[in-house]
Design a protein that fits this description.
The chain has 22 helices and 24 strands. By secondary structure, the protein is of the alpha+beta class. The chain folds into 3 domains: 198 residues, no CATH class; 448 residues, no CATH class; 92 residues, no CATH class. Bound molecules: zinc ion. Zinc ion binds next to helix 7. It comes from Urechidicola vernalis. This is Zinc-dependent metalloprotease.
Length: 861
């Protein structure tokens, strides 16, 4: 009680102090006020309180821009008001945005699409609200459950803006649109930092409201478009970014926003099927009792036959492409041809001339960023983010594609190895944002450029004609266009597509002439270059593939019945219609389980393909010193050729490695004709063949042999202080070890080892024990009892460390016990093999191995 009284007393005294302070403050305020009123007395008399301002009052100094949403822009300040009508309330609209300009430093680059979203406009007392809608769920309106459709899913109130003036009779409401458009209201633009991004990485400042502005307003009856320049500022920066950024403290990102009326047309949504690869909008049917209650909307254009009765008819409205006037003149015909090749596929779906290509006039009054035009665009960026990119945007309620573009980078035609990440460790610090959607990430252009480098290197090295080189470049361009156009039609990747022909068939020119080399141009195959140069045919697909035609039929054919659709889908088991996309991201180490679903391989026997590629690369390496040096020029081209060829050898190892512990996947439905079973392990024979391939060509003491006299010449051309970042000498050992490490990382990945054990239960005959024993042998048996060369010393230490890591490393708990036991078994065996033999270097190396193992064994508990 005493305690309580004391507390109360101190509280009272505190209140007293506060009240005294307040009083003195209000006295001061009063004094100030008195002073002010004195001066005011001499000024004009204060007018009576304004009567409520009308819309006309607030917009009298503004230019009226009529369209879907009427906009008034002040002619003096540029600030904008927007008029909302009563009819527009409680209706749905679509928001879509794309990047007009940015920089690759922060992953926001010209032409990148943000996703489209649905929003609703509503009135709340004297405010107008813009609310993002949830489009992920479907409720059958007939079901009573639909009454609780909003349970536990949230809508997002993006803006709530005061009505500045209204005309209640006409139902008009005026809001300040600056507050809507000069902020990141509709979508996040400044990327969020990836966790773990170093503080020294380039980053944007904060959105500067003063500097952010509207660059253009284009208003049409069905869409209101705005070009906004967002400026991000900070007073100082540690990292000013690349030379694409003029001032790291003040960076502009230009975005095109479109507010679009919800289409009211006869488009019929089409639902997805796991056997065909379309982009989709995922929707769950919450009133269905099905286990897989998917109602996923396929992304496709609204093609309608002019003559519905005809077997083959032109569409009412074709998909029209505009070639941007910046397109290099010499490539215009080829590009047009590439787009129109898809018409062959549409003919199977019943449409004639589904695609049309037109040329943007030099004096066009529209910009390529105008969503009403589908544009084939060209850029030559400082740090090209891609070789090609084909995004589209859809109505999230139906999946209807409403617009698309194709972005192409000029770098694709150059000899420049600007895409450093292809040859160095990937610098993976691109941040997350809405314009960096990995789902649509297409590196086809990058890979095709790399492929072309290889093609050029071989063609030049073997003295083939200029004509041959032109043919290769033509094939390459044609295919890149077909691939990117495929994306804009709704198709995603089909990484199983390169299984169409056997290696022998690919080396039979008359057989493949004019054909597709893969089942699908949506694949990323490697270039077709034959070891025997006399058997060289086409280098890339010359046509869309059988899968592409079938997929377009599925997406676009006007089906007369469900049965017709089903009978088309039932063909999915035919070898030329196989499908597997990059869903499980098989591009990463340890991901993806079906080795046929892979990039950069070719033929229905990728192991043989990879071994051939290694042979061809090695043969070519022997010749490059003569073919890639020219009087009066630097050695840059020679260095590039070395990098390209060794990269082919290393990459081939990665392709082969996927066969070990691989499991073939079949997505056919139960009872479908030609179906096997969902999971079938790779045969013992093929896994052994893969192991032998790696032993001979990736791990062997002479695996990456190049003529020693080459090493003195693989030099970059000096530019300014370009070597300041690190010494310029060729780092041969490191490069080769990296290729070997990539293969080992796949073989010893916890997913691979776990799958080998698991698949022993359902048909895998290459047991974990046999595989781990073979791997150990392939890395040690040829030389451990004698002299070990420097490449093998690196490999053996690296591999030993990886085994130790499995047992005592940070992620050791993610390995299975059986895998760890084999790691321990192998370490002990290496310990025994590493006797004190060979030259001094080899003795030192083996002593190193013994100590590593002894120390590790002490740590194991
Ligand atoms: Zn792609």
């Amino acid at each position: 009680m005493k305690n309580y009284t004391t507390k109360l007393a101190s509280l009272l005294s505190l209140l007293l102090v506060v009240s005294i302070t307040l009083t003195s403050n209000s006295v001061n305020a009063q004094k100030k006020k008195n002073k002010k009123s004195k001066t005011e007395q001499t000024a004009k008399p204060v007018p009576k309180k304004d009567k409520k301002k009308t819309i006309a009052d607030l917009t009298k100094s503004s230019k009226e821009i009529d369209g879907l949403f009427k906009i008034y822009q002040d002619t003096l300040t540029g600030s904008v008001n927007m008029l909302i009508t009563k009819e527009q309330l409680d209706k749905e609209y679509i928001h879509f945005s794309q990047v007009a300009n940015g920089a690759t430093d922060f992953g926001v680059f010209r032409g990148a699409y943000g996703g489209s979203t649905v929003f609703k406009i509503s009135k709340y007392f004297n405010k107008i609200e813009f609310t993002k809608q949830n489009t992920s769920f479907y409720f059958d309106p007939e079901s009573a459950l639909s009454k609780s459709a909003d349970a536990n899913n949230t809508e997002g109130v993006m803006a709530s803006l005061k009505v500045e003036a209204s005309d209640d009779k006409k139902g008009l409401y005026l809001i300040k649109a600056d507050d809507l458009f000069l902020k990141e209201t509709f979508t996040q633009i400044k990327p969020s930092k990836r966790p773990g991004t170093p503080p020294t990485a380039f980053s944007l400042g904060n959105l500067d409201k003063n500097k952010t502005k509207i660059n253009a307003i284009r208003n049409y009856p069905e869409n209101t478009d705005l070009a906004i320049e967002y400026v991000y500022s900070k007073s100082s920066t540690l990292n000013g970014g690349s030379n694409a950024i003029s001032d790291g403290r003040n960076v502009s990102i230009k975005i095109f926003h479109s507010l679009i009326e919800m289409p009211d047309n006869d488009y019929e949504p089409r639902f997805d099927d796991p056997r065909v690869g379309y982009f989709l909008t995922q929707v769950d049917d919450k009133t269905s009792t099905e286990t897989a209650n998917y109602r996923d909307l396929v992304h496709r254009w609204n093609l309608i036959k002019k003559n519905p009765e005809a077997e083959l008819s032109e569409p009412v409205e074709p998909i029209t492409w505009w070639m941007e006037n910046s397109t290099p003149v010499e490539w215009r015909e080829t590009i047009k041809e590439g787009v129109l090749r898809w018409n062959i596929a549409f003919e199977k779906a019943g449409f004639k001339n589904a695609m049309v290509v037109k040329m943007q006039p030099d004096d066009a009054d529209w910009d390529a960023g105008d969503i009403r035009y589908n544009v084939l665009r060209w850029t030559s960026s400082p740090n090209p983010p891609f070789g090609g990119y084909g995004p589209s945007f859809v109505n999230p309620r139906t999946g209807e594609i409403m617009g698309a573009d194709i972005m192409l980078e000029y770098v694709h035609f150059t000899n420049r190895l600007t895409i450093d990440k292809m040859y160095n460790e990937a610098s993976d610090n691109i941040a997350y944002n809405s314009y960096n959607n990995e789902k649509y990430n297409c590196i086809a252009g990058e890979l095709m450029q790399e492929s072309s480098f290889f093609g050029k290197t071989v063609i030049s090295a073997f003295g083939d004609s200029k004509l041959e080189l032109d043919k290769m470049l033509y094939d390459n361009m044609m295919r890149l266009i077909m691939h990117e156009v495929g994306h804009t039609l709704g198709l995603n990747h089909n990484m199983k597509g390169s299984q169409l022909f056997s290696p022998e068939e690919l080396a039979t020119p008359e057989l493949i002439e004019g054909k597709a080399l893969s089942t699908s141009v949506m694949e990323y195959p490697s270039i077709n270059v034959t070891v025997d140069r006399s058997k060289q045919g086409i280098y890339y697909d010359n046509s869309v593939g059988p899968y592409d035609k079938w997929a377009i039929e599925f997406g676009y054919k006007p089906f007369k019945s469900d049965q017709e659709r089903e009978s088309l889908l039932s063909k999915s088991t035919q070898p030329e219609l196989v499908f597997g996309n990059d869903a499980d991201d098989m591009r990463s180490t340890g991901k993806g389980i079906d080795p046929r679903v892979n990039i950069y391989d070719h033929s229905n026997d990728p192991i043989t393909f990879a071994l051939d590629r290694i042979t061809l690369s090695k043969n070519t390496l022997k010749t490059i010193k003569n073919t890639f040096t020219e009087d009066g020029k630097s050695y840059q081209e020679l260095k590039n050729a070395y990098l390209i060829l060794t990269n082919q050898i290393g990459g081939s190892g990665t392709i082969i490695s996927k066969y070990i512990g691989g499991v073939y996947v079949d997505r056919a439905m139960v009872g479908q004709e030609g179906a096997t079973q969902p999971y079938t392990p790779v045969s013992l024979e093929d896994q052994k063949r893969a192991m032998k391939g790696l032993e001979d060509h990736i791990f062997a003491p002479n695996a990456f042999d190049a003529p020693n006299e080459l090493y003195n010449f693989i030099a970059s051309q000096r530019r300014g202080f370009g070597f300041f970042g690190g010494p310029e000498d060729p780092k041969i050992h490191g490069r080769i070890l990296n290729f070997q490490k990539r293969v080992l990382a796949q073989l010893l990945h916890r997913n691979t080892l776990q799958r080998i054990s698991d698949s022993e239960l359902y048909g895998n005959e290459y047991s974990l024990t046999s595989f781990m024993t073979d791997l150990n042998k392939s890395i040690f048996s040829t030389d451990i009892s004698g002299n070990v060369n420097s490449f093998r010393q690196n490999l053996q230490v690296e591999y030993t460390n990886m085994l130790i890591n499995m047992l005592t490393g940070k992620s050791s708990s993610s390995y299975t016990h059986t895998a760890k036991s084999m790691a321990l078994y192998n370490l002990k065996s290496i310990r025994t093999m590493s006797s004190n033999s060979g030259n001094i270097s080899s003795k030192a190396h083996k002593q190193h191995l013994r100590i590593l193992i002894d120390n590790a064994l002490k740590e194991i508990k």
